[in-house]
Amino acid sequence: MVAAAAALALCLLPAAAPAAHRAGGTRAACPKAWAKGWLALAKKVQAPVYCPTWMPNPLDGHIGGEWQDIYSIGKDRSYLVGFLYHGEGASGDVHVNFRGYPGRTRIPRCRIVVPISAGKIRNGIGPCFADPRGRTKANGITATVYTVNQDADQWHVLLAWRRAGTLYTVSEHVIRPYNFSHVVKNLDALLRGLVLVRPAR
Amino acid sequence: MRLTRRRLLGSALAGALGGAGIYELVDQLAGTPARAIDAAAAAALPPEQHVLDLGTVTSEGVEVVVPPLHSELVTATLADVGDLAAARHELEQALGRLDAEYAGTAAGLGVTVAWGLPYFERHVAAAWAKHGPLDRRAGKPALLPPRRFPSDPHDTILEDNDVAVLLRSDTLAHVDAARTALFDDLKLFRTTSIRRGFAGGGFAGKTSLPKKMAMAAGVPGADLIPATAELFLGFTSTQKSGLGPRRIASFETLGLVDLRGGYFRNGTHMHVSHIAEDLEAWYLNFDFDERVLTAFAPSLKAPRPDAQTIPQGPQDVSDTARVRRDFRTAGRFGHSGSIQPTSRLQHDVVGPDGTAYPKGTAIPQRADFNTLDNPFAWTSRPERDGFSSDPAAGVHFVVFNPSSDDFERNRLAMDGVFPDGTTLPVGPQSRAQGFNSVLTTTHRQNFLVPPRAHRAFPLAEL
Asked: Range of A96's domain?
């Protein structure tokens, strides 16, 4: 547990570029070890997807790897790929989600659950991503920052942008060891490192 | 002075973060507010200690009271004073010197000396039995021991201080001088805690003090506070119609309290609590529309996107039937909407001085202020109080009501429990229950605020 906490403490230092990617103005490719999974995803959803070249410590972007959590593709080809480090005790979590909605640019609607009392809930419907707080621009992408998000992105800060008729998002959970400011910085670093992976023809 | 977080953290001031030093930033981050008040009236100290005329401004078309920049509450137990009558004389002399040195305004200094039940029961028990005010409506003493409420954690600390002194000013040096005069120079008290905080700013479109202070301290969620918010949670809470007018909270005004011999006429009741605020939970889980309905009422719509001052005049007031109806249809109730059935007058009242209080008038006079204390700036019992030097967002909730029971009615209503027997079935920290899901009350105590004439060791002279 101490080791886990120490490892997470290290990730609060300025983000370091991973071995697979160096910034410096040149766009990197999807890291070799991760490319297969992202290419397979692009093929399944029949649309380009974004592969990360940087992830917050200790995560990596290896689909099928140690940290991959959710991998879900809907009938409408929308996808959710999550990466999760679950710290021991109260050391915290690191949780990043990637979404895409091929052929759709509107913000989807989500079921919003309000717990009332033990065993009783009230359902509502609302936007899955809400409370926009400005925009951030990097890597040729202009993304809107959303701070109130639902479902797997609840308690996350989320960046959303549109490309060629598809809505894409990347989000990170605001939870120890990362507060809101850290998460915003991490998301900026993620955005800077995204690489488009097109489905093989 | 412009002070960025980077400059702050790179300066010697960084060493003071988490301690009392951070509050010195209030003077640097905020100019002295202009206050439109009747200077002549303010110069004469009223018989009530709790009355402090603050002046108003218009915010988003609503008249808003301008809170003092600095507030500090010092709690203590009695030292081995021996002769209470002599101690009374000594304290009154010191208070008199403060009165002479500072105008009784926010530009000068507001001093409110309040006494806890332990003082009355341990030190002046016989006189208290004879003169202690009684709440006619509740059939109980007007000053009750503190209690926990349904949404309180099981370990909320119920305090037993003898005395609490509330110091309010736009100038920190005045507050410091008063604390030194009363708690350091005099040897009458053993200080148990010092609680500091701030409020205001932002009314003229400038970045507000709570936003600046939270950013400077780097508390989680600071970035999410709207730039001009009067308080951390983003809404203006000092609109004039939401605060009780001048004398309404005094024991005698509404006729709720039997003053018996009249010793405590012009006095009131003060509840003090510390409430931790989870800003990230508030701003990351509740979108703007949900924050409005959570803070106010489910049937309320903000007048414009990102509004911070939501009109809460007498005509906007909820009653129990509306709260029940909202709960049936929306499955939730708002914070101020749920409290209004008990905190607003249900019918017109004329006070003993002839002042007319129309139906819908607010009764409680709040004097709450945001804080970065965790939970206090200083405590004599750090382990018991869960003290940390890391700054944390919160509020020192200070409110004047005519009695403990009157406060309890309001606080229970906040949990969906109403005097007519209505109990809305919500869990203690449910998101359906207003603010409660992001608030954690750590400490509570009730005090009696005597009239100015008896502010020092009340009943000791009898």
From this structure: 2-8+32-197
